[in-house]
Structure formats: structure tokens, C-alpha cells
What we know:
The chain is α+β, with helices and mostly antiparallel strands and 208 residues long. It has 2 domains: 22-118, wza like fold (2-Layer Sandwich), CATH 3.30.1950.10; 121-203, Outer membrane lipoprotein wza fold like. It has helices at 4-18, 91-105, 146-152, and strands spanning 23-26, 34-38, 51-58, 61-69, 75-78, 82-85, 111-118, 123-128, 134-137, 167-172, 178-183, 200-203. The strands form 3 sheets. A 5-stranded antiparallel beta sheet has the order 1-2-7-3-4, with helices on one face. A 5-stranded mixed beta sheet has the order 9-8-12-10-11, covered by helices on one side. Strand 5 and strand 6 (82-85) form a beta hairpin.
Amino acid sequence: MKSPLFTRLFLLFPLLFGSGITVLAQNEGGPNEFSIDSQASLAYTISPLDYLKIALYVADEVQFQTEVRVSQSGMITVPHLGLVKVADLTVEEMREKLYEPYNRDFYVEPHIDVVVLSYAERSVTVIGKVNRQGLVPFPSEEGLTLLEAIALAGGWSGDRLSDKRNVTITRTSDDGEKFVIKVDARNITTQEYPLQEGDLVNVPERLW
């Protein structure tokens, strides 16, 4: 059986070249509910406006469950502890941050589950010589590469119009500074040049 990643990349090729704890996996609770059920998901970084479900168990008995949206400042409110900053923490780091005070002051060896009920909307912008300029959704868990974003923007406008040699990615650093990455996209693969949320991709017009 082909992996979802293989299927996703396979479907992109016509556009690109023709023109407890385990992965964030979909839960039975609904189409937008994702549960932490593999080691890969521990690396997911929580962002402002993510919507979370947190449950705490002791000896398999639920002590509390709460649903919270991460504030713009990265905070959540949880029972007993009050405000806790979780944005920019991985899921594993968040669980450890909650476990320490709960285990020390309130419960004996609690088990904490985290479920991402919905992700904050994320996107990159693709402009220039592509067939559909504008915002491209940024998958929260899988990420997005340069060629995948161009494919989702409708693909190149054509070899005569799109200058694949001089594609640029404008990115904002953690300290707020903007910088530009220049890419010759003629011979790169779909796995190369992973994008970040908020990136601006520009495909210039080919000059003769």
C-alpha cells in the first residue's frame, strides 16, 4: 500500500512537470480532530490559536478534561495551574511542562493526554508566474515544500513565462528580520526547500 506522502507527491507531478503517545492521526471524534498517537507527533510545535483538549488521568481514572484555545500570546488556562505558556513548545515539551507541577503539587504520577482538535490557519503566499496567485494552505503536520506550494498554486505559467532559475522565498526570521532565499528550481525535487508558515514565494517572469 502506498504511503500518503507518496500519493500526495504523485498527484502533484502533473502540475509541476506537465505544466499516552504516537503521529497526529485523525480520530474517530470528527474530521478535524487529531490525536497524539505516535512518536512523530511529539515534534509538532503548538502555535497561537491552536485548539487543544487536555485530559489528566491517575491510575486510569479521569481527574479532569478541558478544551482550550491557545491565545495570541501563546497562553492557555488549565485547572489548578492557571495560565501556562505553551506556544512554541513541542507536544512532548508541553506534556512535560504540565506534568512537573501536577505531579509535584496535586497528583501522584499523573498521565496527561493532549489532543489537537483544530489547528490555527496557516498559509504561504505564492505570486508571480503561476496559474493561481494567492494564499496556499500550509499543512500543520506534514509541512510544505517549494514545488508542492507551486503545484497547489496551479503550477508554472509555462516554460516561456516562468523563470524557474530565479525563484525567491522571502522569510521572516525569529527576530523579525526579512531575508531572501534564491532558488534555481529547474532541477530540484519535491522534497527540497521546505517552506515555513508565512513565506512569500515569487516566480518571476522569464526575460529574454
